[in-house]
Amino acid sequence: xxxxxxxxxxxxxxxxxxxxxxxxxxxxxxxxxxxxxxxxxxxxxxxxxxxxxxxxxxxxxxxxxxxxxxxxxxxx
Length: 76
What we know:
This protein has helices at 7-42, 47-75. By secondary structure, it is mostly helical.
């Protein structure tokens, strides 16, 4: 840990960036499991699960890009 940073700031950043990983995982799981459930109901296996996975991944990456944009605006 750098000497010029306070431990509170370090922990705040750690939780912020750790949370984005959890958000990415949750987005992908919700999309894939939702698609799987629809596949089960509509008997279209595996197509809706694949579509759900893609949309969940896109939502997760959107969260990452939003965080990067916020950090960039903060630094400017």
